[in-house]
Amino acid sequence: MGQTPTFPVAGAIPGERAAMRAELNQLILQLAAAGVQLHGKFKWTLGEVYWGPFGFDFTCENVAGLRQAARQSSKLAPDFSDMPGYDPWLAAGIKAEGYSQLDKTPFVHLDIAVNKPGLCRMYLSTERGRHKTSMGMAISSYANDPIVRRVSRALAALRLPLDKYGITATRVYGGKNSAEPEGFDFDVNDAAGLLRDARKIGPLALDDADTFEGKVSSGVTLGTGFREVGYGPRIHLEIDVTHRPGRNNGKGNVHIDLEGWVVGKDAAGRAIYDWIHGITHHFPEDLLPGYIGRPWVGRWRNIEWRPSVGVEHGREHDEKDPAWKAKVGFVFRF
User: Fold this and answer.
1) Which of 49, 88, 148, 184 has the fewest Cβ atoms within 10 angstroms?
2) Rg (CA), the chain
Protein backbone atom coordinates (compact mmCIF):
# COMPACT_ATOMS: atom_id res chain seq x y z
CA MET A 1 0.00 0.00 0.00
CA GLY A 2 2.89 2.40 0.71
CA GLN A 3 4.98 3.60 -2.14
CA THR A 4 8.60 4.25 -2.91
CA PRO A 5 8.92 8.03 -3.23
CA THR A 6 9.72 9.46 -6.61
CA PHE A 7 10.71 13.00 -7.48
CA PRO A 8 8.98 14.73 -10.38
CA VAL A 9 12.06 16.76 -11.26
CA ALA A 10 12.30 17.48 -14.97
CA GLY A 11 15.73 16.80 -16.39
CA ALA A 12 17.17 15.37 -13.17
CA ILE A 13 19.93 12.86 -13.83
CA PRO A 14 19.62 9.42 -12.23
CA GLY A 15 22.29 10.15 -9.61
CA GLU A 16 20.52 13.31 -8.44
CA ARG A 17 17.17 11.53 -8.32
CA ALA A 18 18.67 8.71 -6.25
CA ALA A 19 20.24 11.17 -3.80
CA MET A 20 16.95 13.02 -3.33
CA ARG A 21 15.08 9.74 -2.85
CA ALA A 22 17.58 8.73 -0.18
CA GLU A 23 17.02 12.01 1.69
CA LEU A 24 13.27 11.60 1.50
CA ASN A 25 13.44 8.01 2.74
CA GLN A 26 15.60 9.12 5.66
CA LEU A 27 12.93 11.64 6.66
CA ILE A 28 10.20 8.98 6.42
CA LEU A 29 12.31 6.63 8.56
CA GLN A 30 12.71 9.35 11.20
CA LEU A 31 8.92 9.74 11.33
CA ALA A 32 8.65 5.95 11.70
CA ALA A 33 11.14 6.08 14.60
CA ALA A 34 8.83 8.69 16.16
CA GLY A 35 5.92 6.26 15.99
CA VAL A 36 4.19 6.87 12.64
CA GLN A 37 4.95 4.20 10.04
CA LEU A 38 4.03 5.69 6.66
CA HIS A 39 5.44 2.88 4.48
CA GLY A 40 3.22 -0.18 4.40
CA LYS A 41 0.55 1.33 6.67
CA PHE A 42 -1.00 4.08 4.61
CA LYS A 43 -1.77 4.72 0.97
CA TRP A 44 -0.29 8.09 0.10
CA THR A 45 0.83 10.15 -2.87
CA LEU A 46 3.86 12.37 -2.98
CA GLY A 47 3.27 16.07 -3.60
CA GLU A 48 5.64 19.03 -3.68
CA VAL A 49 9.17 18.60 -2.32
CA TYR A 50 10.97 21.59 -0.85
CA TRP A 51 14.07 22.67 1.03
CA GLY A 52 14.60 25.19 3.81
CA PRO A 53 13.43 23.20 5.75
CA PHE A 54 13.65 19.93 3.84
CA GLY A 55 10.29 18.18 3.53
CA PHE A 56 7.36 17.42 1.27
CA ASP A 57 3.59 17.63 0.91
CA PHE A 58 1.60 14.45 0.41
CA THR A 59 -2.00 13.28 0.24
CA CYS A 60 -3.18 10.41 2.42
CA GLU A 61 -6.36 8.41 1.88
CA ASN A 62 -6.66 7.45 5.56
CA VAL A 63 -6.15 10.76 7.34
CA ALA A 64 -8.09 9.59 10.40
CA GLY A 65 -5.70 6.66 10.83
CA LEU A 66 -2.67 8.88 10.36
CA ARG A 67 -3.98 11.31 12.98
CA GLN A 68 -4.67 8.47 15.40
CA ALA A 69 -1.14 7.09 14.95
CA ALA A 70 0.34 10.53 15.67
CA ARG A 71 -1.83 11.04 18.75
CA GLN A 72 -1.00 7.61 20.17
CA SER A 73 2.76 7.93 19.73
CA SER A 74 4.67 8.64 22.93
CA LYS A 75 7.48 10.15 20.85
CA LEU A 76 5.29 12.86 19.28
CA ALA A 77 3.31 15.69 20.86
CA PRO A 78 0.90 18.32 19.47
CA ASP A 79 2.75 21.37 18.18
CA PHE A 80 0.95 24.15 16.33
CA SER A 81 4.01 26.22 15.44
CA ASP A 82 4.30 27.48 11.88
CA MET A 83 6.99 26.15 9.56
CA PRO A 84 10.29 28.01 10.08
CA GLY A 85 10.98 30.66 7.45
CA TYR A 86 8.48 31.00 4.63
CA ASP A 87 5.40 28.85 5.25
CA PRO A 88 3.43 28.14 2.03
CA TRP A 89 0.53 26.65 3.98
CA LEU A 90 0.22 29.77 6.09
CA ALA A 91 0.33 31.91 2.95
CA ALA A 92 -2.45 29.79 1.40
CA GLY A 93 -4.65 29.90 4.51
CA ILE A 94 -4.30 26.17 5.20
CA LYS A 95 -4.91 25.33 8.86
CA ALA A 96 -3.27 22.25 10.29
CA GLU A 97 -3.05 19.91 13.24
CA GLY A 98 0.68 19.52 13.92
CA TYR A 99 2.87 17.00 15.74
CA SER A 100 6.58 17.27 16.55
CA GLN A 101 9.11 14.63 17.48
CA LEU A 102 10.26 14.92 21.10
CA ASP A 103 13.75 15.18 22.56
CA LYS A 104 15.63 15.11 19.28
CA THR A 105 17.45 17.71 17.16
CA PRO A 106 16.83 18.04 14.27
CA PHE A 107 13.31 16.74 14.66
CA VAL A 108 10.60 15.63 12.23
CA HIS A 109 7.32 17.56 12.18
CA LEU A 110 4.04 16.25 10.77
CA ASP A 111 1.14 18.51 9.73
CA ILE A 112 -2.36 17.26 8.85
CA ALA A 113 -4.55 19.89 7.17
CA VAL A 114 -7.93 20.43 8.79
CA ASN A 115 -9.52 22.60 6.10
CA LYS A 116 -8.17 20.72 3.09
CA PRO A 117 -9.04 17.02 3.57
CA GLY A 118 -6.29 14.55 2.73
CA LEU A 119 -3.46 17.06 2.51
CA CYS A 120 -0.48 16.43 4.80
CA ARG A 121 3.19 17.34 5.01
CA MET A 122 6.30 16.46 6.94
CA TYR A 123 9.58 18.31 7.25
CA LEU A 124 12.81 18.24 9.20
CA SER A 125 13.20 21.17 11.58
CA THR A 126 16.66 22.26 12.67
CA GLU A 127 15.27 24.42 15.47
CA ARG A 128 15.97 23.57 19.10
CA GLY A 129 14.37 20.25 20.03
CA ARG A 130 10.93 19.92 21.61
CA HIS A 131 9.88 18.48 24.94
CA LYS A 132 6.43 17.71 26.33
CA THR A 133 4.73 19.97 28.86
CA SER A 134 2.48 18.82 31.69
CA MET A 135 -0.43 19.62 29.36
CA GLY A 136 0.92 17.18 26.77
CA MET A 137 1.98 19.85 24.27
CA ALA A 138 5.36 20.03 22.52
CA ILE A 139 7.32 23.20 23.29
CA SER A 140 10.79 24.36 22.42
CA SER A 141 13.56 23.23 24.74
CA TYR A 142 14.57 26.89 24.71
CA ALA A 143 11.73 27.50 27.17
CA ASN A 144 14.07 26.69 30.08
CA ASP A 145 17.08 28.50 28.65
CA PRO A 146 18.51 30.96 31.26
CA ILE A 147 18.53 33.82 28.74
CA VAL A 148 14.89 33.20 27.74
CA ARG A 149 13.85 33.15 31.38
CA ARG A 150 15.89 36.24 32.28
CA VAL A 151 14.63 38.35 29.36
CA SER A 152 11.04 37.12 29.85
CA ARG A 153 11.18 38.15 33.52
CA ALA A 154 12.38 41.63 32.55
CA LEU A 155 9.41 42.01 30.19
CA ALA A 156 7.00 40.55 32.75
CA ALA A 157 8.24 43.19 35.22
CA LEU A 158 6.76 45.73 32.80
CA ARG A 159 3.43 43.84 33.13
CA LEU A 160 3.66 42.12 29.76
CA PRO A 161 4.09 38.36 30.45
CA LEU A 162 4.86 36.62 27.16
CA ASP A 163 3.50 33.24 28.21
CA LYS A 164 0.02 34.77 28.19
CA TYR A 165 0.22 34.98 24.38
CA GLY A 166 1.49 31.47 23.64
CA ILE A 167 5.10 31.96 22.59
CA THR A 168 7.68 29.42 21.42
CA ALA A 169 11.30 30.54 21.49
CA THR A 170 13.03 29.64 18.21
CA ARG A 171 16.51 31.13 18.60
CA VAL A 172 18.48 32.38 21.60
CA TYR A 173 21.55 34.60 21.45
CA GLY A 174 23.75 36.73 23.66
CA GLY A 175 25.35 35.82 26.95
CA LYS A 176 29.00 35.50 27.80
CA ASN A 177 31.53 36.11 25.04
CA SER A 178 28.76 37.13 22.63
CA ALA A 179 28.79 40.21 20.43
CA GLU A 180 25.00 40.55 20.77
CA PRO A 181 22.82 41.58 23.72
CA GLU A 182 20.80 38.84 25.41
CA GLY A 183 17.54 37.99 23.67
CA PHE A 184 15.57 35.51 21.62
CA ASP A 185 13.34 35.12 18.55
CA PHE A 186 9.92 33.55 19.02
CA ASP A 187 6.72 32.37 17.36
CA VAL A 188 3.57 33.69 19.02
CA ASN A 189 0.01 32.39 18.80
CA ASP A 190 -1.67 35.68 19.69
CA ALA A 191 0.59 38.24 18.04
CA ALA A 192 -2.32 40.63 17.54
CA GLY A 193 -3.06 40.54 21.29
CA LEU A 194 0.60 41.04 22.17
CA LEU A 195 0.80 44.03 19.83
CA ARG A 196 -2.39 45.50 21.26
CA ASP A 197 -1.27 45.14 24.88
CA ALA A 198 2.28 46.38 24.23
CA ARG A 199 0.78 49.70 23.13
CA LYS A 200 -0.85 50.03 26.58
CA ILE A 201 2.34 49.53 28.61
CA GLY A 202 3.50 52.84 30.06
CA PRO A 203 7.27 52.23 29.96
CA LEU A 204 7.19 51.02 26.33
CA ALA A 205 7.38 53.58 23.51
CA LEU A 206 6.50 52.88 19.88
CA ASP A 207 9.01 53.07 17.03
CA ASP A 208 6.54 54.68 14.62
CA ALA A 209 7.75 53.89 11.10
CA ASP A 210 5.38 56.56 9.73
CA THR A 211 7.67 59.26 11.13
CA PHE A 212 11.22 59.96 9.97
CA GLU A 213 12.76 59.36 13.39
CA GLY A 214 10.77 56.18 13.94
CA LYS A 215 11.67 54.88 10.50
CA VAL A 216 15.38 55.39 11.15
CA SER A 217 15.13 53.82 14.61
CA SER A 218 13.21 50.78 13.35
CA GLY A 219 15.42 50.20 10.32
CA VAL A 220 16.39 46.65 11.39
CA THR A 221 13.24 45.91 13.40
CA LEU A 222 10.99 42.92 12.69
CA GLY A 223 7.45 44.28 12.26
CA THR A 224 6.48 46.81 14.94
CA GLY A 225 9.02 47.78 17.59
CA PHE A 226 8.69 49.03 21.16
CA ARG A 227 11.55 50.38 23.29
CA GLU A 228 11.61 50.76 27.04
CA VAL A 229 12.03 54.36 28.11
CA GLY A 230 15.31 55.22 29.86
CA TYR A 231 19.07 54.86 29.68
CA GLY A 232 21.17 51.80 30.48
CA PRO A 233 19.86 48.24 29.95
CA ARG A 234 16.37 48.46 28.43
CA ILE A 235 13.87 46.10 26.76
CA HIS A 236 13.42 46.18 22.97
CA LEU A 237 10.37 44.22 21.76
CA GLU A 238 9.54 43.47 18.11
CA ILE A 239 6.22 41.97 16.92
CA ASP A 240 5.27 40.89 13.40
CA VAL A 241 1.61 39.89 13.02
CA THR A 242 0.58 37.46 10.28
CA HIS A 243 -2.07 39.31 8.30
CA ARG A 244 -4.19 36.35 7.19
CA PRO A 245 -7.96 35.93 7.55
CA GLY A 246 -8.76 34.27 10.85
CA ARG A 247 -5.11 34.21 11.99
CA ASN A 248 -3.64 36.26 14.84
CA ASN A 249 -0.31 34.50 15.11
CA GLY A 250 3.07 35.83 14.10
CA LYS A 251 6.73 36.11 14.98
CA GLY A 252 8.73 38.35 17.25
CA ASN A 253 11.95 39.16 19.02
CA VAL A 254 12.76 40.52 22.44
CA HIS A 255 16.17 41.46 23.81
CA ILE A 256 17.76 43.71 26.41
CA ASP A 257 19.71 46.53 24.79
CA LEU A 258 22.77 47.45 26.82
CA GLU A 259 22.08 51.14 26.23
CA GLY A 260 18.58 52.55 25.92
CA TRP A 261 18.19 55.91 24.21
CA VAL A 262 14.48 56.71 24.45
CA VAL A 263 13.81 59.57 26.88
CA GLY A 264 10.02 59.56 26.75
CA LYS A 265 6.92 59.19 24.62
CA ASP A 266 4.47 61.65 23.12
CA ALA A 267 0.70 61.74 23.56
CA ALA A 268 0.31 59.12 20.80
CA GLY A 269 2.77 56.75 22.49
CA ARG A 270 5.58 57.39 19.98
CA ALA A 271 9.17 57.30 21.21
CA ILE A 272 11.14 60.48 21.84
CA TYR A 273 14.81 59.76 21.13
CA ASP A 274 18.08 61.10 22.48
CA TRP A 275 20.01 60.89 19.22
CA ILE A 276 23.34 61.91 20.74
CA HIS A 277 23.09 59.12 23.30
CA GLY A 278 21.94 56.75 20.57
CA ILE A 279 24.99 57.48 18.43
CA THR A 280 27.50 57.49 21.27
CA HIS A 281 26.12 54.61 23.35
CA HIS A 282 23.38 52.51 21.70
CA PHE A 283 25.10 52.22 18.31
CA PRO A 284 28.53 51.07 19.56
CA GLU A 285 27.14 48.95 22.40
CA ASP A 286 24.20 47.20 20.75
CA LEU A 287 24.34 47.49 16.95
CA LEU A 288 27.99 47.68 15.88
CA PRO A 289 29.15 44.51 17.73
CA GLY A 290 26.60 42.40 15.86
CA TYR A 291 28.08 43.48 12.53
CA ILE A 292 31.80 43.40 13.28
CA GLY A 293 31.89 40.56 15.84
CA ARG A 294 35.15 39.25 17.19
CA PRO A 295 37.94 40.11 17.86
CA TRP A 296 36.61 43.66 18.12
CA VAL A 297 34.16 42.59 20.81
CA GLY A 298 35.03 40.07 23.44
CA ARG A 299 35.83 38.98 26.95
CA TRP A 300 38.89 37.46 28.60
CA ARG A 301 38.63 36.52 32.24
CA ASN A 302 37.13 39.63 33.89
CA ILE A 303 38.02 42.02 31.08
CA GLU A 304 35.49 43.05 28.44
CA TRP A 305 36.13 45.21 25.39
CA ARG A 306 34.06 46.71 22.59
CA PRO A 307 34.26 49.64 20.16
CA SER A 308 33.27 53.10 21.36
CA VAL A 309 32.07 56.14 19.43
CA GLY A 310 31.95 59.56 21.10
CA VAL A 311 30.51 62.86 19.90
CA GLU A 312 31.08 66.15 21.70
CA HIS A 313 30.75 69.86 21.06
CA GLY A 314 33.34 72.29 22.40
CA ARG A 315 36.77 73.70 21.85
CA GLU A 316 40.29 73.04 23.01
CA HIS A 317 42.32 75.72 24.76
CA ASP A 318 44.13 76.61 21.54
CA GLU A 319 40.98 76.76 19.38
CA LYS A 320 39.06 79.94 18.66
CA ASP A 321 35.61 78.52 17.96
CA PRO A 322 33.80 75.47 19.32
CA ALA A 323 33.13 72.59 16.96
CA TRP A 324 31.67 69.10 16.83
CA LYS A 325 34.20 66.29 17.27
CA ALA A 326 33.91 62.53 16.95
CA LYS A 327 36.11 60.13 18.86
CA VAL A 328 36.48 56.48 17.95
CA GLY A 329 38.18 53.94 20.16
CA PHE A 330 37.59 51.06 22.56
CA VAL A 331 35.93 50.75 25.97
CA PHE A 332 37.48 48.28 28.44
CA ARG A 333 35.61 47.06 31.50
CA PHE A 334 37.37 45.37 34.39
Assistant:
1) 88
2) 25
